[in-house]
Automatic annotation (TrEMBL):
<dbReference type="GO" id="GO:0016757">
    <property type="term" value="F:glycosyltransferase activity"/>
</dbReference>
<keyword id="KW-0808">Transferase</keyword>
<dbReference type="InterPro" id="IPR029063">
    <property type="entry name" value="SAM-dependent_MTases_sf"/>
</dbReference>
<dbReference type="InterPro" id="IPR050194">
    <property type="entry name" value="Glycosyltransferase_grp1"/>
</dbReference>
<protein>
    <submittedName>
        <fullName>Glycosyltransferase</fullName>
    </submittedName>
</protein>
<dbReference type="Pfam" id="PF13692">
    <property type="entry name" value="Glyco_trans_1_4"/>
</dbReference>
Length: 543
């Protein structure tokens, strides 16, 4: 394999994503193959006035070439995905036609629009699909409007790759049950770099339980928090460390506050992956209590293997791959309700002999999931694959979306609508009403770009509102991050909502308090519905 070449196509920004399977795959490729190209999106690169006239960043690291291309941030979720696929396709065909990579690897069904061209134009010989999740259900949780598109892409990848590696036996069975039987499917689980997760002695561990991962509703951390409350009510006190971030973070913090257990729960936010082993080695129990769904039944998360590698006993869901791993390893307990969770915490932290046995079992079980062994097996299988000579056509019409998008790009800034003019006019109107101070609800990239178009002369911007308490008091883009309550206390006169996706949700959340305190709310997108294209273009397209 040393003399072979590999193209790895990623549908995310490699610079932003937490350490996941693709990162471990890259490390393996670096040590195994002569020539490796990693192609991915970069959210810090922006499109210009011509759709396919864009700059890329190319970096060489030994035998690996990293190439990042612009990521389209169109406000319409499905159009964004369609456009991004064509940006990737354009780059591949203009740079890799007849390149004949030995292997091309995809890790996301969003790469489906690339498959036919890669095969037809001799970009790569063997097309590999890493089947890592039930992506159709995953995306339906965040962007329901693209569910049908995701279902089409996922089905296409499963029927047109040359070989598939599903991350769990449950996921493989699910694919077969869906009728995807034309392509050989093998199981290739997630793993761990054992040397990075040395197991510490019990003398350095405290009565702490730990969760590491995405703070989303499906991750079930709320279940564990309520279970911890039962422990405390029974007189058993343990500390719960929560590492990660996500859309459900503020709800989890509020739940902790409502249950009056804030002193026992610590939210540490996102940490670099190399800092996790030391933190885990100070704890005794790893938590992985998913909400039950097909997404979580078939999942084989990296974190449970890393818990095992650190010698943690594990409390996990009583279904799916999590239950299978705990039962097979003998390294913990499965639970189905909050009372059982409390029972499990108390048993593991008080029954020393049982805990020691779980700890021994966990480390031993983790040794079966070495990344090098997993990928060696995968590429041995790939070496024997007989690739298809042709693939089916993906029945999606891109032309209409691309033409519409190019018209937006090619407007050359001649739009009658101008964000700068809009906010100049708004300031005059607000000053006539006697307003003196505004606040902006949002402290992310959208706000950073919006601030470039706001230059108030007679009004003050009192701060950027963010609901996450860990950011409060920090400065960003020249303004202090404040809470909504801080904005009320400052007696701001108007709040500008800086979010398209969550504009209505934020409005509904603050409207009653704003009405009570005589604060006007300005909804940029709702009140300028006919100018969405121009707003998006002026915020996200370089001139």
């Amino acid at each position: 394999m040393k003399n072979q070449s590999v193209l790895l196509v990623l549908e995310f920004d490699l610079n932003e994503m937490m350490t996941q399977r693709p990162h471990h795959l890259i490390n393996y490729l670096k040590n195994t193959f002569k020539n490796v190209v990693i192609l991915y999106f970069n959210k810090k690169l922006y499109l210009k006035n011509q759709l396919f006239d864009f700059e890329v960043i190319k970096e060489q690291e030994d035998n690996i070439t990293y190439i990042s291309i612009p990521y389209c941030k169109h406000y319409d979720a499905e159009k964004k995905l369609l456009i991004n696929s064509q940006l990737m396709k354009h780059y591949i065909l203009n740079n890799f036609t007849n390149r004949n990579f030995d292997i091309c690897i995809f890790t996301n069904p969003l790469s489906a629009p690339l498959v036919e061209s890669i095969k037809k134009e001799n970009v790569a010989k063997v097309l590999v699909y890493e089947d890592l999740d039930d992506f159709t259900q995953y995306y339906s949780l965040y962007s329901p409007e693209i569910t049908s598109y995701m279902e089409l892409c996922e089905g296409y990848m499963l029927d047109n790759a040359d070989v598939i590696f599903s991350v769990s036996e449950s996921l493989k069975d699910y694919r077969i049950g869906q009728g995807h039987t034309n392509v050989p499917i093998y199981i290739s689980p997630n793993g761990v770099i054992l040397k990075n997760f040395n197991c510490s002695s019990n003398s350095t561990r405290e009565d702490k339980i730990i969760f590491i991962g995405a703070l989303e509703e499906w991750a079930g951390v709320q279940f564990a928090i309520r279970g911890l409350k039962q422990c405390i009510d029974r007189g058993f006190k343990a500390e719960f460390i929560i590492v990660g971030e996500g859309l459900y973070e503020k709800e989890l913090m509020q739940l902790t506050k409502d249950l009056n257990i804030e002193q026992y729960v610590k939210f540490l936010g996102r940490l670099e992956h190399n800092k996790l082993p030391e933190l885990m080695n100070r704890c005794k129990v790893g938590i992985i209590t998913f909400e039950e769904s097909n997404l979580t039944k078939v999942a084989h998360p990296i974190k449970i293997i890393e818990y095992f590698a650190c010698g943690l006993a594990v409390i996990g869901s009583d279904f799916g791959e999590i239950k299978n791993a705990i039962d097979e390893s003998g390294a913990g307990l499965t639970v189905g309700n909050e009372e059982e969770f409390a029972d499990a915490v108390i048993k593991l932290l008080t029954d020393h002999n049982f805990y020691i046995q779980c700890q021994k079992n966990s480390r031993k079980y983790a040794e079966e999931f070495d990344w090098t062994r997993i990928f060696d097996n995968e590429f041995t299988i790939i070496s024997e694959v007989r690739p298809k000579t042709r693939v089916n056509k993906l029945n999606i019409n891109f032309e209409e979306v691309l033409q519409e998008f190019e018209m937006t790009l090619n407007s050359n800034g001649q739009d009658e609508f101008s964000l700068s003019n809009l906010f100049n006019s708004l300031e005059k109107e607000w000053v006539r009403k006697g307003y003196k101070k505004a606040a902006i609800y949002g402290a992310g990239e959208h706000t950073e770009r919006l601030l470039k178009h706001i230059s108030f002369e007679n009004m003050e911007i009192g701060g950027l509102i963010d609901s996450n308490p860990k950011y409060l008091g920090q400065s960003r883009y020249g303004y202090k991050i404040i809470s909504f309550q801080n904005a009320i206390e400052q007696e701001v006169d108007v709040i500008i909502i800086s979010s398209r996706k969550y504009e209505e949700e934020i409005y509904n959340m603050i409207k009653n308090e704003c009405s009570k305190n005589h604060i006007e709310i300005f909804k940029l997108y709702k009140e300028n519905k006919e100018y969405e294209d121009q707003i998006w273009r002026q915020l996200y397209i370089e001139e």
